[in-house]
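Record type: monomer structure entry
Structure origin: computed from sequence
Chain ID: A
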Amino acid sequence: MQQSKHDFYNSSLMPHISYVKRKTKNRFTLIELLVVIAIIAILAGILLPALNQARNKARALSCLSLFSQFGKCTGLYIDDNQGYLMPYRNDNGVWNSTSKMVMGCEPARWLFRTYIPVRGTASIGLLTRTQTSFSKITCPSRQFDPTISGNNEFIFGISYSIGGQNKPPKSHTCQRPSQTTILAECRATNYAQYGLGTDRRAWFAQHQGKACFSYIDGHASLIKRSDLPADHTFPFYSYKQ
């Protein structure tokens, strides 16, 4: 017997058809899917620069914390060495021009090894072109610059005007210790120093135009490129007795 149209809509097939219609109506169309993808891409484009900026700021603060430790170690070093500031070169406490550099050196001659214990064998403050292991005492933002001509790059330096002497001055002879820097982030290929010409220049690219410095009085700061004094400027780079 042929079912009427009324009987068909009242049959057991009707719930199944309604379910199919509901499922079909809830699916995304291609245009809707593309709109969602476009919105996600726009949000990512807005948020990623902010996230990168936050990450860079966190790395800068981490590096500043490291230089704050350097500042505290400076005071301890002065107390343990008859009031003398740190030299550029050191050989078991005897200043001379033939011993290893105290910044950017192997762990055995690391300047602050008594105060900041060294783990591993990686050089401190020195990056190399083929380097595979890194010291824990380093800037989290810094990587070797492949465009330089040499194979070594010093990233921590000591003031040339102060530590560049075989026997640096005593701290009490510096008139303005809170304004006189002793350690800094630098970009040098031959010397772990800063404050003398282009090959011993303080480098500011890694922290959004800023670099970390430690001062003779023990504090540390981030300084903008635009605020960097000229080489040999007193009291930033040098001292007066």
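Annotation 1: The chain is about 30% helix and 15% strand.
Annotation 2: The first helix runs from residue 5 to 9.
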